[in-house]
Structure formats: C-alpha cells, structure tokens
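Practice problem: predict the structure.
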Amino acid sequence: MYASLNVSMHSTRRSKEEMRAQLLEPLRRTAGEIEADLRAIARRRQSFGVGDEDGA
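Answer:
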C-alpha cells in the first residue's frame, strides 16, 4: 500500500525553507501515526481470521 500526505497554501505565505522547517516534522509524525493505526487494524483483522485476498 502506498499513500501520501498533502499540504497546500499560497506560495507567498511562506518560503520553501519556512515550510520545510515548520511542516516537515509534523507531517512525518502524522504519517507515522497513520502507519501505526493501519498496522494495528491489520493485526486485528488477522486475529479475527479476516482474509485479505486482494492485498488491499
């Protein structure tokens, strides 16, 4: 499974450097939390014997 996070804002609000400094770590943290949730769901499904034939 592949996923992405997206942030949009007007290009004149912040420089690339400001965006990177202010947003990259929170986005990485959020991605990690989403990944942990998806792993927990997959483990729970496995424990109940719920199949995932299509790989989704």
